[in-house]
UniProtKB/TrEMBL annotation:
Annotated InterPro entries: GlmS/AgaS_SIS, GlmS/FrlB_SIS, SIS_dom, SIS_dom_sf
SUPFAM superfamilies in the record: SIS domain (SSF53697)
Organism: Halopolyspora algeriensis
Protein name: Glutamine--fructose-6-phosphate transaminase
GO molecular function: carbohydrate derivative binding
Amino acid sequence: MNEAADRTGNPPGSHMTAEIAEQPQVFAELLGRRRAIGEVAARIAERRPRFVLLAARGSSDHAAVYAKYLIEILLELPAGLVSPSTATLYGARPDLTDVLLLSVSQSGGSPDLLEVTESGRRHGATTVAITNNPGSALNEAAEMSVDIHAGPEQAVAATKSYSATLLALYLLIDAVRGGSGEQAGTIPELAQTALDTSDGAVDEAVQRYRFANGMITTGRGYSSATAAEAALKLAETSYLSARAYSGADLLHGPVAAVDTETAVLALCSSGRGGEAMRPVLDTVHEHGADICVIGSAASEVRAAHRIGVASCAEELAPVLEVLPVQRLALGLALARDVDPDSPRGLHKVTRTR
């Protein structure tokens, strides 16, 4: 019997399985809190920030990449990712007047993000914490906060807290531009459909890749965030060596290492990002790679295996396409005799500085 099951009395992966299944309800509850998010957005809009910085680690860093695309496309503001060590290790204290600093952390417990937020606020930034822990030190340090309301998460690998962070960021950024979040109204139902209909295709993918030594994950546009999250999920749950590249970066050198022994997980949803993946996957196919495509445009590109997802507004696709990614990571972990609830050497809250 799996050692972790002996210690906890729960079957391996039971927490991760349950938390993946909770996501449609989490989305519905988050949509019901749009008014509170809108109030934060209104205060941000009043400040008229000239630039947006995003501070995050781990899965939250991938959510920040998604937010960067939203900010640059929907708000047409420049945005960048903070390097926390510039503040924590090197003591840099830039002037952040008229800058919006979004600190994204599911736990709100990482010391480096706390220090970056405190420093940013002292040096002129409008600071907003996006967390799953309204009582965290990060929430107290920031001027404003958005609670993603995903509920307690027991598995080490983030699932519902990650996807809820994506949706919260979309609702916040859409509201800053004066939107009502209307495009997200059907997300709970579409998420339930994605979970209900993907089992067979995910199970086939598990059998196809259970003995893979490594995998490349790739996507463009909004989906590049999902590619990064997919690589992390595969590495931390099933110990599969995975490397994420944007579709554009994959062609700038790494494709030379792709051959018939290479497994590629590609995120392709309807829209400009998915369309831009066509020539990427054509090239990867010519190199002989085994390609698995996830997304609403899965049937429209070259692949050996496909996991379809319902179509929605392109900027919301990462909220849906990550669901079969999580299922795949869970299935591969169990198939490789790993308990994804308790990966070796990992803890739910990682404290870095």
